[in-house]
């Protein structure tokens, strides 16, 4: 196991949560790709640190106190896997995007806290993250934040938040 690769991957996650985004260029390769960006804003779908910074801004616009509590990290060759719990509090709308980059849905802020398990996969090159993908407990997130089962009032708030997000994106 390469301790340096595992530390680099964990550092990238810490930076995403902390907001010290200038440091991402030290740990993210110029040609890095986030395979999870398909549901994120168009700015997140590029390559390199700028796309990862866009993902961090997107997450932090919806979630305050974002932290990743690492349980395990394993490296084999150029691949590092990190099992963690992501936690925070929803303070802004969480906006999901479709494959064309248009707003698909927006989940209005609930102010609730959450903690969900995730597994992040990182491919490394030259000591930097060059590829990322993840398995997340999205249903657990939705339940903890009160998105499901939706109440009639929440559905109305969701429709309003989606309209506002679409206007802002236009």
From TrEMBL:
InterPro entries reported for this sequence: Cyclase_SnoaL-like (IPR009959), NTF2-like_dom_sf (IPR032710)
GO biological process: polyketide metabolic process
Gene3D superfamilies linked: 3.10.450.50
Top-level taxon of the source organism: Bacteria
Pfam families per UniProt: SnoaL
Protein name: Putative SnoaL-like polyketide cyclase
